[in-house]
């Protein structure tokens, strides 16, 4: 069994909304193995992005812990946290707001190296910047260009180069392709996969696009209203979903095949419940077609078959 | 040293773009002429000409002897404008810079950190803003005593709230963007985030407000001088000269025209430079 790089233990993040709490991330337990990719899927507002930010401690968690290489991220001092951020980086969803419009391409990529004093001289930094631009496939002549002069795909490549500039082991990819054209999406995904192979990176890949996550992940965690409801190896999850929500999610993937036209889609009824002070018990219960009395008890993530975890009292 | 060289090249880039802006260059030219004139005022026409009264030369229109004419006490208006500029321009410059610095710092802190600090700062500013600024300056001068330093303090304090609000609002539009989060994720210090990532993106409206406020400051000083709380006569000052000239607007309009023009031209030039700088600092408007 491969080595665990990052693990969360009962990680919680609540946002105060007046006197109530919005449970953005609620008791999430995930494990990411070194060199692998964990896909995080779930619909909008289910806490995927917050989970990514809390893991990097860009938001302070409300409870629980994040263990990175055996070290507790939540207990790190400022100095240790700075060091941690040279091993763990993030790529953002929106390539238009994630780059400083007043800095040129080379300044953006060099900035983390300057801040963390990774190279001693300016010459070394500029050399590394040029290398990084080459790695992510941005032409050298764009070094002095500003972000507004570039298209979304190139901007996202700059975001990737910036994340790589500190030589991280782990990168949180927060929907890195969802703001891009489909044709560019494939290029950026392939770039990310090539980088993973060449630089031994570990990814946490946040997305709502199931076809993307199938393409890139070794393991997938499904989130619903701040909770991880199912976690399994990618192939296993797609072949054999055990949680009713996962099943509904998978059946919603369109299949580009005429003979599948009459296929029945499992539609879930009702609206997403409010994440503000949710009722105890399974959060999917109100929409679940298989709901029973026991569903109003708190649900624990349990291992049904090796590496396949489900938080459902009567899994499918 | 390495970063110093880079900073210089960036400044050079801004200067190169500013040079292309004709109206900004006109503004810069006028301000330089004004600055040189007031710096060498003593050499051009000594101060005693500005305060020497003469009954026989009262209210004379511009002539070869008095190129801007004379005022109600027979004093040479040209010399008075020259020496008045020393006071007026430094009031405008010092108070605008001081309120930018203090208001900017408070506003940046309030916008960046938020929370109770933001509440405290902004409620104090609201309190200051609820008092009419001229009344506030008046109260401060009355309490501290009428002299130049207190005049500067009074005008600065009265204009700090506007700067604080503006800077806070500009910072708030930037601070929520992802590139600030990205900078944090690299371990960038708060100070560097504010200086390198937030201020350059929030600077446009701040520069315009600063340069536009210079003329307002000159007029505020003039208003205080007018009611005897600012610059004390016989010391000349543009605003005070303007006030004195009001009585003679029909009989001797030249008394009003020259200090008035001096205020308008300096205000206009500051605004032109401000607009030019805002554009030159924005790489999105390159070429």
List low-pLDDT spans of chain A.
none
The largest pleated sheet of chain A is described as: 8 strands, mixed
Question: How many angstroms does the end-to-end distance of chain A come to?
Answer: 28 Å
- Mean pLDDT across the residues of chain A is 88
CATH class of chain B: Mainly Alpha
Number of strands of chain A: 13
Number of DSSP strand runs of chain B: 0
Residue-averaged pLDDT of chain B, rounded?
A: 86
Approximate helicity band of chain B? over 70%
Radius of gyration of chain A: 21 Å
Helix fraction of chain A by DSSP (H/I, runs of at least 4): 25-40%
Largest interface: A-B, 32 and 25 residues
Please tell me about this protein's structure:
The complex is a heterodimer of chains A (316) and B (287). By secondary structure, chain A is of the alpha/beta class. Chain A has a domain at 4-87 and 168-240: 3-Layer(aba) Sandwich (Rossmann fold). Helices cover 29% and strands 23% of the residues of chain A. Chain A contains nine helices and 13 strands. In chain A, strand 5 (63-68) and strand 6 (71-72) form a beta hairpin. Chain B is mostly helical and 287 residues long. Chain B has a single domain (20-44, 70-282), classed as MetI-like (MetI-like fold, Orthogonal Bundle), CATH 1.10.3720.10. Chain B is 76% helix and 0% strand. Chain B contains twelve helices and no strands. Chain B has helices at residues 2-20, 22-39, 41-44, 48-51, 77-113, 115-130, 133-144, 148-175, 178-185, 190-226, 238-245, 254-280. The longest helix of chain B is centred in the first third of the chain and has 37 residues, at 77-113. The two termini of chain B are 30 Å apart. Residues 1-5 of chain B have low confidence and may be disordered. Classes of the chains: A alpha/beta (316), B mainly alpha (287).
């Amino acid at each position: 069994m491969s080595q665990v790089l990052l693990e969360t233990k009962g990680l919680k993040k609540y946002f105060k909304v007046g006197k109530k709490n919005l449970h953005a991330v609620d008791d999430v337990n995930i494990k990411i193995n070194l060199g692998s990719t964990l896909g995080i899927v779930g619909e909008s507002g289910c806490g995927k992005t917050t989970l990514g930010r809390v893991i990097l401690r860009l938001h302070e968690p409300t409870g629980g812990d994040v263990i990175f290489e055996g070290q507790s991220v939540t207990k790190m001092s400022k100095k240790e946290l700075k060091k941690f951020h040279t091993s763990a980086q993030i790529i953002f969803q929106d390539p238009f707001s994630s780059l400083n419009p007043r800095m040129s391409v080379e300044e953006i990529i060099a900035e983390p190296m300057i801040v963390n004093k990774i190279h001693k001289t300016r010459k070394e930094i500029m050399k590394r910047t040029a290398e990084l631009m080459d790695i992510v496939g941005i032409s050298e002549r764009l070094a002095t260009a500003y972000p507004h002069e570039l298209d979304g795909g190139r901007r996202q490549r700059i975001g990737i180069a910036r994340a790589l500039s500190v030589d991280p082991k782990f990168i949180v990819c927060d929907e890195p392709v969802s703001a891009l054209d489909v044709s560019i999406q494939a290029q950026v995904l392939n770039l990310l996969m090539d980088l993973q192979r060449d630089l031994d990176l570990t990814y946490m890949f946040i997305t709502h696009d199931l076809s993307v996550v199938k393409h890139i992940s070794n393991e997938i965690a499904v989130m619903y209203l701040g909770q991880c409801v199912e976690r399994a190896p990618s192939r296993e999850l797609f072949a054999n979903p055990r949680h009713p929500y996962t099943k509904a999610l998978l059946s919603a993937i369109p299949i580009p095949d005429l003979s599948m036209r009459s296929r029945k889609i499992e539609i879930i009824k009702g609206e997403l419940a409010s994440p503000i002070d949710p009722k105890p018990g399974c959060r999917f219960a109100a929409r679940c077609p298989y709901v029973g009395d026991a569903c109003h008890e708190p649900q624990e993530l349990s291992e049904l078959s090796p590496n396949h975890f489900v938080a459902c009292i009567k899994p499918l | 040293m390495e970063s110093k060289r880079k900073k210089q090249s960036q400044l050079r880039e801004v200067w190169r773009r500013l040079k292309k802006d004709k109206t900004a260059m006109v503004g810069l030219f006028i301000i330089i002429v004004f600055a040189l004139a007031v710096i060498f005022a003593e050499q051009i026409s000594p101060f005693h000409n500005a305060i020497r009264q003469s009954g026989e030369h009262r209210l004379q229109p511009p002539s070869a002897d008095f190129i801007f004419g004379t005022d109600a006490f027979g004093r040479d208006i040209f010399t008075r404008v020259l020496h008045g500029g020393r006071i007026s321009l430094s009031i405008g410059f010092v108070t605008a810079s001081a309120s930018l610095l203090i208001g900017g710092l408070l506003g940046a802190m309030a916008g960046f950190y938020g929370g109770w600090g933001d509440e405290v700062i902004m409620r104090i500013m609201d309190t200051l803003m609820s008092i009419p600024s001229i009344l506030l300056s008046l109260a401060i001068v009355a309490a501290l005593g009428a002299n130049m330093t207190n005049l500067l303090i009074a005008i600065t304090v009265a204009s700090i709230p506007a700067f604080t609000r503006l800077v806070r609002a500009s910072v708030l539009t930037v601070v929520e963007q992802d590139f600030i989060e990205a900078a944090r994720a690299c371990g960038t210090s708060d100070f560097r985030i504010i200086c390198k990532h937030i201020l350059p993106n929030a600077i446009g409206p701040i520069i315009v407000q600063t340069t536009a406020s210079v003329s307002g400051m000159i007029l505020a000083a003039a208003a205080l001088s007018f009611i005897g709380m600012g610059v004390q006569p016989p010391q000349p000052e543009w605003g005070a000269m303007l006030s004195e000239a009001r009585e003679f607007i029909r009989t001797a309009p030249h008394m009003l025209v020259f200090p008035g023009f001096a205020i308008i031209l300096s205000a206009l030039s500051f605004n032109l430079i401000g607009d030019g700088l805002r554009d030159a600092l924005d790489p999105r408007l390159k070429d």
